[in-house]
Design a protein that fits this description.
It is a single chain. With 258 residues, the chain is an all-alpha fold. 63% of the residues lie in helices and 3% in strands.
Length: 258
């Protein structure tokens, strides 16, 4: 996926909010959205002054937003670069992708068990709405939208567990894993997206039945199904014919809709 010029990415995205903290949050959301939709690519520089001018806002909220994104690990200085010399969209290595995937695979069964017992009716309605957005994006063949709706599903299920610290950890991993997929140029076909939607729907139905055992089992199955579809990225996966040289080889075809 080719890089977009910052002027094109942020055209018409001037930020307006009544109070400074909200300016910071608004700028944060605009920049993060551009990264998570693949408009800003790995290695692309983010210059505070340029962003402030494009967004028609002072440098302070831009600086604060960039600090938050750097804390989340989404942007950072280039290796060996001195502090204060600019920030870049951080690349996500295949190894990091594996680690994030495996971390969520270990944590989400615990969170979904809690969600089955603790989710409010309002939270269940939000999760169901995320599934509807996923289906609409698949019908429109909107890959970026499908990934975003899928992240919403995982975020809402995790937050319904009541453990917001672990939920935040899962969401951050989901975001950075999607950054890898977008930047690696992974081909995400319709069948793969529909498979993930079916698996998400089964998890939701278990939550709606208040069945923690079934919910946990279905989350584990979903993780195993994704691992199979992402086999090229996991050297120990069955039927993996890819070379494991530790390098990013983002040209492989693969499924998503995680």
């Amino acid at each position: 996926m080719a890089q977009h010029d910052l002027t094109t990415v942020f055209a018409g995205r001037q930020v307006a909010a009544p109070r400074a903290p909200r300016y910071r949050e608004a700028v944060y959301q605009v920049i993060k959205e551009a990264i998570l939709t693949g408009k800003l690519q790995a290695g692309q520089p983010l210059v505070e002054e340029h962003l402030a001018a494009l967004l028609n806002i002072s440098r302070t909220p831009v600086r604060e937003a960039l600090i938050i994104l750097e804390h989340e690990g989404i942007i950072g200085a280039r290796p060996g670069q001195r502090a204060g010399r600019g920030l870049y969209v951080r690349p996500v290595s295949r190894h990091a992708f594996e680690e994030m995937f495996e971390a969520n695979e270990a944590i989400e069964p615990y969170l979904v068990r809690r969600a089955a017992l603790l989710a409010s009716e309002g939270q269940l309605a939000e999760i169901e709405a995320a599934l509807a957005r996923t289906a609409a994006c698949i019908a429109a063949q909107d890959t970026v939208g499908t990934l975003a709706a899928s992240r919403d599903f995982h975020r809402l299920v995790s937050r319904a567990s009541g453990n917001l610290r672990l939920a935040g950890f899962v969401v951050n991993n989901e975001e950075r894993a999607d950054m890898y997929l977008l930047n690696a140029g992974i081909v995400i076909d319709l069948d793969q997206m529909e498979t993930s939607l079916r698996e998400h729907t089964a998890i939701f139905e278990a939550l709606a039945r208040r069945d923690p055992v079934a919910a946990e089992r279905l989350v584990i199955y979903h993780a195993q199904s994704l691992r199979s579809r992402f086999a090229a990225f996991f050297p120990d996966a069955e039927d993996d014919g890819a070379d494991d040289d530790g390098a990013d080889n983002g040209g492989a075809d693969g499924g998503s809709g995680a």
